[in-house]
Design goal:
homodimer; about 375 residues; alpha/beta; TIM Barrel; 6-stranded parallel β-sheet
Amino acid sequence: MALTYELIKKDKHTNARVGVIHTAHGDIPTPIFMPVGTLGTVKTMTPEDLEEIGAKIILGNTYHLYLKPGMDIMKKAGGLHKFMNWDKPILTDSGGFQVFSLSDNRKITEEGVTFRSHIDGSKHLFTPEKSISIQNDIHSDIMMSFDECVDARADYNYVENSMKRTLRWAKRGLDYHKENSHPDQSLFGIVQGGMFKDLREISARETTAMDFDGYSIGGLSVGETKEEMIDILNFTTPFLPENKPRYNMGVGTPDYLFESFQAGIDMADCVLPTRIARNGTALTSHGRLVVKNAGFKEDFTPLDHECDCYTCRNYSRAYIRHLMNVNEILGARLLTYHNLYFLLKLCENIRQAIMEDRFLEYKEEFYSKYGY
Amino acid sequence: MALTYELIKKDKHTNARVGVIHTAHGDIPTPIFMPVGTLGTVKTMTPEDLEEIGAKIILGNTYHLYLKPGMDIMKKAGGLHKFMNWDKPILTDSGGFQVFSLSDNRKITEEGVTFRSHIDGSKHLFTPEKSISIQNDIHSDIMMSFDECVDARADYNYVENSMKRTLRWAKRGLDYHKENSHPDQSLFGIVQGGMFKDLREISARETTAMDFDGYSIGGLSVGETKEEMIDILNFTTPFLPENKPRYNMGVGTPDYLFESFQAGIDMADCVLPTRIARNGTALTSHGRLVVKNAGFKEDFTPLDHECDCYTCRNYSRAYIRHLMNVNEILGARLLTYHNLYFLLKLCENIRQAIMEDRFLEYKEEFYSKYGY
């Protein structure tokens, strides 16, 4: 059975809301941050680590998994859940974002996108149908429609044409989905339209007119200012139906999460917390901490004094700084663990705040400490 | 209080023996393999992982820790146990082996060894006293005397002079130890003498005449054949007192462990299981498995069918091969976990076999499956 969304509580003062997404692989409390596991692993982490930090759903990347390990192996493994030993929900993107990022090595037609692999230069074609077919093989719980994510600075004509093609692709993907997906898989439509509100409105109205299981807002966090992001988000979200989950793609800093959830978004993802972890930076309740800096070499306090995660309960900044300084894998592992815990705990706190109608107070309190 | 060794059982048919080393940080059942944690971490593993796989004692490397994080930080951290959050026993080498490996960048005098750091070329002097002093700062449970480890092909005169200097250094280190070490730290003497039995005998007699808490056999696994190693080991070990632990340094393949334990050795260490793990190779009951090879890409069986470790219970060769193929840290982590578990389980099985006077049967059984 496809997912269902249960609305539990609306904030009295904002559009923020608490809910639960029910899936075949378990329930997802919302609003939620989703750790990214590009290649069938959230980098450095085991599934048990992910459960420990409170992850309820993770992402896989269709483009990357399609190239490696490839769908032959994925099918024989019985899908990504079994391949990577994760039995909670998995969401996959459509591959569109990665394919369009290969700017010099792809060609868009009505049929789809022809591109060359970043690994070996081999030629491939992704169509709306092919994208769903790959996501069928991955057997993700939540799939995305194949769309074009345009740059925030693209001109009106380009965005209009692209958005309309994305609508046609959405319909093709949905038709393919209805015929071919496993009954427990759900498909989201994606609203595009760049920075142009009239195009956003058309995209939102037409996408929601199709019967998707949830809706994503695409084309944000792609070069626009934070104010533009918030503006488009608050303009677009009200067009999305209340009885289905809403997903803002590619968002992972605390302020973008707050703003997204405040606008009524339920789900967000980003590689940021895991990527900056591997570069030696921690998210803390007092802002980012570049723990690999020499200034922390004799600091025997935890990464975040207010954090009760495994890393903060057991290791000092000095030790983690040492590990990063000598390129020890454990450093990346401890920081990844902490950063994901930090964001998932933040989501838990936000859910709690919404339940108590004090979302804005909590946001203000968090911002003043974090230094926004 | 320094360590004590308790002999529990001697094998009826070989010199193998089962015992327990009692230390301030806990008991170590012997014979035992000791994972190497060069820079204050057994690469990829947390202390909890190490406990899970049955590690009872780990190594730190004096030379590496002296350079990074350095002894200022080590002292302020309160020693390596606290710095890395490991509360079981730690053994440190003397730094001698690493310093002598810097063949073009070190100079030996009676006083000690002057060398240049492999990191920044800075000049340092290690003396027998300095080596103990660093190990005092690390606060390891078991320290090693500063010695020269000569190449297996060194000539008689060189080895004789070196061995005699090592004896003088042993005495100096022991004197320094008695005055300066923490009462819960123990110091081992190291028998040298290369491939020359008369020199091994002199070294063994004179080293054991000094009152060390245990004895290491150095200068093996440095270029000699396996037969030479076994020959020297069986010649030397009988000179070591029965009431103290015996340590064969730098040994970590299953056959070298069997041969060492058969000769009456209690402790061994090697980077091999962790290093080959990071290169994509597993130790299994049927020999080494280069799991990163393409041949395993559709093999959904565990690394080792007979292994019940976390990795083998949860992941396939195909998944681990994929992780190694795309340079995912989790691959190195899962393989490291398995390889160390494999060797520690092997030691447990060997202890059990000795208790039941069937060490040789177990050895033969293991060898026939492993393919030796």
